[in-house]
Amino acid sequence: MDRTEPADDPSPAAVPPTAPAAAQRTSEAGPGIPRGLVLLLGAAAVVIAAAGLYWVSWLVGPLLLAMIIVIAIYPIKTWLERRGWPTWAAVVSLLVVIFGAILLLSAFLAASVSQLAALLGQNSGRSQQLIASLSQQLTRLGIDPTQSGGLANQVNPDKLVSQIGAVLSGLGSVAGTLIFILALLLFLTAESGSVSRRMQVIHQQRPHMTEALSGFTRGTRSYLVVTTVFGAIVAVLDTVALVVMGIPLALLWGVLAFITNYIPNIGFIIGLVPPALLALLTGGWQLALAVVIVYCILNAVIQSLIQPRFVGDSVGLSATVTFVALLFWAWILGPLGALLAVPMTLLVKAVLVDADPRAQWVEALLGADPPSPKSVAKTGRKAARRAGKKAARWRGNGDGRQPRGAHAATPTA
C-alpha cells in the first residue's frame, strides 16, 4: 500500500502574512498617534509636573529629605534588630541621633555666623579700601567713574561674605521645620519594616518596578557613602590648610566644604568663595591667592577628578547628567534640591526608565559607562529566560496550581 505525503495546505489561513501586508492592514485599521504629537504631549506633561513640584516645593523638599534619610539609616536599623534590639528602640535611638546631629549643626552655624558678623565689622575699613582701589583700576581702564563705582560695589567682599553668612544662618535656623521632618521620619522609619512584604506583593504584578526601586535604594546608599567619605576627607584637609594659613573661622569653612560636597560639580566653588573673600579682607590678595591655590589643589583634584568617577560608578549617571540635574532640581526645590539632585534623578530614572523594559535604550544616554551591544544582548537573553521560568512556575507543574505566594496578589471575592 503506497503511502503518500500530505500536501501542504494552500488555504490563505495557513500562509503567514508578509510584512507589507501586515503593515497595510495595520494602516487600514486606523492611523496611530503621530510621533510629533507624542513629543509635544510629553513635553507638556513635563512642564506641568515641574510646575506642580515648584508650587509644592515646601512639602516635597522635606518629604524627600526624610525619605533619603530613612533609606540611608535602614541598614543600621536592621543591624540593630538582628542584634536583639526591639523595633521601637532602634527607631527611637536613630531618630535621637539624627536630630541631635541636626541641632548640633544648627547651633554651630548660628554661633559661627555671629562670629562672622563681628569679624566683618572689624574689617569694614579694609573693605572700603578694596572697593576704592577696584574703582580706580576700572576708571583707568576707561570705564565711567559712576559705572566703575557701581561695579565695585557689586563685588564688595563685605556684602558677599555677609550674604553667605545669611545663607548659613538660614541653614541653621531649621527649628521651624524640625517638627515636620521629625513626624515624617517617625512614620517612615516605623513603617520601613513592612517594605519587604509590600515589595513582594508588588513584584508579583510588576517585577520590573521592584527591581528598579531596589536599584534606586542601592544607588542612593552608594552615592551617600561615597559623597560622605570624600566630603569628610575634603573637610579635614581644608580645615587644616586654613588653620595653617591663619584664616579666621577655619572650622566653619571646613563644615561648609563638607556640606557643599553633596552638590555635584560646582560644590567646591561654592565652598571656596567665603574663605577666599575673608582672606582678601584680613590678609590681602596674596593670602586670598594662596587660599584659591590650596583649594584648587585639594578640592578640584578630589571633588572634580576623583569623586565623580566613584559617583558615576556607584549611581550610573554621567557627569553631564548630574550637572543638568543639579540645575533643574535647584530651580525646583531651591538649595535643598541642589543637595538632593542625584538621589532625585535616580528616583525619576528608576520610575520612568528602569521600570519600563521598552525604555532601556535611555540608559545608554544617561549612564556614565554605556554597556556594549554584547552585554545588552546577554542581559536581554537572561531577562527572557527569567520571564520564561516565571511563566512556567505560574502555570504550575501541569495541574494548573498557582505558585506559592501568588494568592497574595489575587483579589478575593
Describe the structure in your own words.
This protein is mostly helical and 413 residues long. It has 2 domains: 55-196, no CATH class; 206-367. 78% of the residues lie in helices and 0% in strands. The protein has helices at residues 19-29, 35-55, 57-82, 87-122, 124-140, 145-154, 157-172, 175-191, 195-205, 207-245, 250-260, 267-283, 285-315, 319-333, 335-339, 341-354, 363-366, 373-395. It is globular and about 80 Å long. The termini are far apart. Residues 1-30 and 397-413 have low confidence and may be disordered. Belongs to the autoinducer-2 exporter (AI-2E) (TC 2.A.86) family. It is a multi-pass membrane protein.
How do the strands and helices of this protein lay out in sequence?
Blueprint lengths: L18 H11 L5 H21 L1 H26 L4 H36 L1 H17 L4 H10 L2 H16 L2 H17 L3 H11 L1 H39 L4 H11 L6 H17 L1 H31 L3 H15 L1 H5 L1 H14 L8 H4 L6 H23 L18
